[in-house]
């Protein structure tokens, strides 16, 4: 009996002591071995992720020379340089929208809602003035690869001005950067899902990745529907949120343990469909996948710096770019809100960081003196 009373007393004392302890906040730890941003990006010294600050140029001057109004450089899941108005979202990202659109396609192809070998005729797609029968034989996969052979005028400008004449090219046989294809690709996705591109983006990307500056109600279409039925689905995204999308691609579609894009789809859309010679000529830099510009191994950039190998780029007119460079575990988002940016400016930023990267670096090598418990970030 005395033993029971002692045990009871000990338990009561233990509960009392526990109740007096301050409550510990739950740790917001990554579900994977990688670092991911939460509501905001964490920041780190370049050295933590293999970049030697002493080899970087003066960053303020670099930003000025690049002509960007905002820059976000992410390595290993942390912001190692942020400059300008990275929160600004009122400027659209121009043709970079296409690289976001294609990322969402895989889910609906897998579910069977979209059949990649369905033709325009199968889908009941026509346009102002009518499409030719040859054009109607183009398949969904031809549209996604920019090889449709349909050269109807798009509702918005910005495509290849030297495109062939209509009804002269068999679908699937010729690459041509053509906004009609991209706009119809948006329509096909909306037709299949019963949702707008923006609703799908909100559901599949913006909310799961906790975009900081996303406003669904601010998204709006463009284009003249008197020229073509199919509108351009312009996207209004901040530079720091665009960097999140780039980091999702770098992590092969996985976001903190959740596969938002199937890994095989990430690989497919960043694999060459149209060759270097077709896309940019023998002296160019890019081949083309599905709505991504790929740094080709036979192109000038990879030949000049092997760290471009495996990299790819989203490109938009006026200075909107997103580079994903797996060889350096690097993502760079660039925006010029005044539409005065140039790809040469983006290359200045990319090259500055690639030239400062230690190719022998392994994640975790850096001992951060300001964070003795940095290893707790990882599971």
What does this molecule look like?
- The structure is a single chain.
- With 379 residues, the chain is α+β, with helices and mostly antiparallel strands.
- It folds into two domains: 41-92 and 238-360, DD-peptidase/beta-lactamase superfamily (Beta-lactamase), CATH 3.40.710; 94-236, Beta-lactamase.
- It has helices spanning 2-20, 59-66, 97-110, 120-123, 133-136, 140-144, 179-193, 197-206, 239-250, 263-269, 276-279, 300-304, 343-355; strands at 70-75, 78-84, 254-255, 258-259, 286-288, 293-295, 312-316, 320-325, 330-335.
- A seven-stranded antiparallel sheet has the order 2-1-9-8-7-6-5, with helices on both faces. Strands 3-4 form a two-stranded antiparallel ribbon.
- Strand 1 and strand 2 form a beta hairpin.
- Helix 2 (59-66) packs antiparallel against helix 13 (343-355) and helix 3 packs across helix 7 (179-193).
- The longest helix has 19 residues, at 2-20.
- The model is unreliable at 1-28 and 369-379 (pLDDT under 50).
Blueprint (SSEs and pairs):
Elements: H1 2-20, H2 59-66, E1 70-75, E2 78-84, H3 97-110, H4 120-123, H5 133-136, H6 140-144, H7 179-193, H8 197-206, H9 239-250, E3 254-255, E4 258-259, H10 263-269, H11 276-279, E5 286-288, E6 293-295, H12 300-304, E7 312-316, E8 320-325, E9 330-335, H13 343-355
Antiparallel strand pairs: 1-2, 1-9, 3-4, 5-6, 6-7, 7-8, 8-9
Helix pairs in contact: 2-13, 3-7
């Amino acid at each position: 009996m005395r033993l029971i009373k002692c045990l009871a007393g000990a338990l009561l004392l233990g509960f009392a002591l526990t109740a007096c302890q301050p409550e510990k906040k739950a740790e917001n730890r990554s579900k994977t071995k990688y670092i991911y941003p939460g509501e905001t990006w964490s920041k780190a010294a370049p050295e933590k992720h293999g970049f030697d600050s002493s080899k970087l140029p003066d960053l303020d001057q670099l930003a000025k020379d690049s002509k960007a109004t905002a820059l976000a450089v992410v390595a290993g899941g942390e912001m190692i340089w942020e400059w300008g108005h990275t929160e600004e979202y009122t400027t659209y990202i121009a043709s970079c929208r296409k690289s976001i659109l294609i990322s969402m396609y895989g889910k609906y192809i897998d579910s069977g809602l979209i059949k990649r070998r369905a033709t325009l005729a199968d889908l009941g797609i026509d346009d102002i003035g009518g499409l030719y029968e040859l054009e109607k034989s183009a398949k969904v996969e031809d549209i996604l690869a920019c090889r449709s052979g349909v050269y109807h005028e798009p509702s918005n400008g910005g495509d290849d001005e030297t495109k062939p004449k209509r009804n002269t090219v068999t679908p699937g046989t010729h690459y041509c950067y053509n906004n009609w294809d991209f706009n119809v690709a948006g329509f096909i996705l909306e037709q299949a899902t019963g949702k707008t591109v923006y609703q799908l983006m909100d559901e599949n990307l913006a909310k799961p990745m906790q975009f900081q500056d996303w406003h669904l109600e601010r998204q709006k279409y463009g284009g003249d529907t008197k020229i073509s039925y199919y509108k351009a689905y312009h996207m209004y995204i901040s530079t720091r949120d665009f960097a999140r999308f780039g980091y999702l691609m770098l992590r092969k579609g996985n976001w903190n343990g959740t596969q938002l894009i199937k890994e095989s789809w990430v690989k497919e859309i960043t694999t060459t469909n149209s060759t270097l010679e077709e896309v940019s000529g023998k002296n160019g830099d890019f081949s083309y996948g599905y709505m991504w510009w790929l740094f080709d191994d036979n192109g000038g950039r990879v030949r000049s710096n092997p760290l471009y190998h495996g990299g790819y780029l989203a490109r938009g007119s006026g200075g909107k770019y997103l580079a994903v460079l797996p060889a350096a575990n690097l993502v760079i988002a660039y925006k010029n809100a005044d539409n005065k940016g140039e790809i040469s400016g983006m290359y200045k930023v990319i090259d500055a960081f690639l030239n400062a990267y230690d190719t022998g670096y392994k994640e975790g090598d850096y001992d951060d003196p300001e964070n003795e418990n940095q290893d707790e970030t990882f599971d």
